[in-house]
Amino acid sequence: MPRDLSEVFVDYAMRIGFDDLPVNVVKEAKRRILDSIGVALAAYSAEPVKYARLAALGFRGNAPIIGSSQLTTIDWAAFINTLMVRYLDFNDTYLSKEPLHPSDMVGTALAISPHAGSSGREVIAALAIGYEVGVRLCDAASLRIHGWDHVNYTGIGHLLVTGKLMRISREAFLNAMAIHTTSHLSTRQSRVGELSHWKAATTANQARNAVFSVIAASHGLTGPDKPIEGEMGFIRQLLGGEFDYEPMKDLENLTKPSAILRTYIKPYPVEYHAQSAVEATLKIREELGVVNPSDVESISIRTFKAAYDIIVKDPEKWDPKTKETADHSLMWAVATALINGDLWLNHYEPGKIRDPRVLELIRKTKVTVDPELDKHYPQAVPTVVNVKLRNGREAEVKVDYPRGHPMNPMSDDEVENKFRRLTAGLLTVRQQDEVIRMVWGLEDIKDVALLIKSTII
Fold it and tell me: For residue 164, is it within any domain?
């Protein structure tokens, strides 16, 4: 019998291989890799990404960075790749007792795989494992209600992906898990108030620390006993002792990962709890046509409590000044979509974040928590948007499952089109075609370094 959940996770990671994966899980992993490469490349010139690449120049190594010919150490590559995947808040999501962005792990996998000589099959298997454990942890307990950040769960996924791809021994794997889960913890302060670069970098820091922990353990360093269930371990310290073991029970014998199928791809570059509202607003825009803010009498949004707590209640969300705050503002997202008939990355340019028309509409917006909608979260993400014009016209739309949700999935063509739109002007059409071809055929690629080389801007 396992003495600690860390043993369950490590043994699961060591046991599962590509041949254990269902066909639809393999397909979904490839969709997430393509999506993640797209959002990473779109973030290539973002301020924190540029600063991180500059910082990494002083560290020589052989690990490539997505989009770049620059080589660095694998821990810095994991940090930068993951920061790129996460920065735009446009990568995938999972909602349960705790929310998660599991494709953060793709950045780690693409940093480790060239160093480890990983094949496409190994990368797909490692990601399926990371998704499985990360999602099940979210089903087991909430971190945020205790003041801790969801990236503490993602960090366990980063560790499993790294250890799997680096093919370390069971003893080293267990020590790496112990070192990581007891030493590299993130508070939720990075997600309240006016948001900074570090909001997106917290998961990147978890990736860097996971790589460090694996390297340290593989060279003989040992970690604390019972790091997750111990007297002063992860569960007691971060979760107040609250944890549902039911979602974890069959990991000891499970041979077919499936949790990735329950996660969501984003069609719009905003925090996931705003996706339904944006989709509803765009449908209202189609009905009402071009809207002048002075013609709007009121905007009413009814939503669920988690959305209110994360993207409404802070005063800064009602007057966003940074990209990081704007993409976590339900009111800003709705106003921007109504004004422009679209919501895309160009709307985060400094002048557009503070667009007077958008700010005027925010002042006319009211947001309430609807107990009936709240009953359906997180299985659904229901939001109702109502827009009243001064001339008496009115439109109201409810969306329960936005595009990209497992109940309303994006097609392969839509995933490809998102990638092409994200990388337009960064990659040539020929490069785009090559990346797409390689990702769809990833299980046949012997060296994933070839894929990363194809992304150089």
Answer: yes
Give bridge partners of residue 396 from the DSSP assignment.
Answer: 386
Domain coverage including residue 169: 5-267+434-453
Measured in whole angstroms, how far is the alpha carbon of residue 427 from the centre of its chain?
A: 23
Q: Which residues of the chain have pLDDT under 50?
A: none
Q: Find where tokens 């060591």 sit.
A: 14
Write down the pLDDT at residue 351: 87
Q: Please check whether residues 276 and 196 belong to one and the same domain.
A: no
H/E stretch holding 369 reads strand 365-369
For residues 95 and 244, membership in a common domain is answered with yes
In a domain, 427, yes or no: no
pLDDT at 252: 84
- Asked if 120 contacts 444 with a C-beta cutoff of 8 angstroms, the reply is yes
Residue 300, C-beta contacts closer than 8 angstroms, at least 6 positions apart: 365, 366, 368, 384, 385, 386, 387, 388
Q: Which amino acid is at 303?
A: T
pLDDT in tens, 411-423: 999 999 999 999 9
How many structural domains does the chain have?
A: 2
Q: What is the CATH number for 324?
A: 3.30.1330.120
Contact predicate 274/90, CB 8 Å: no
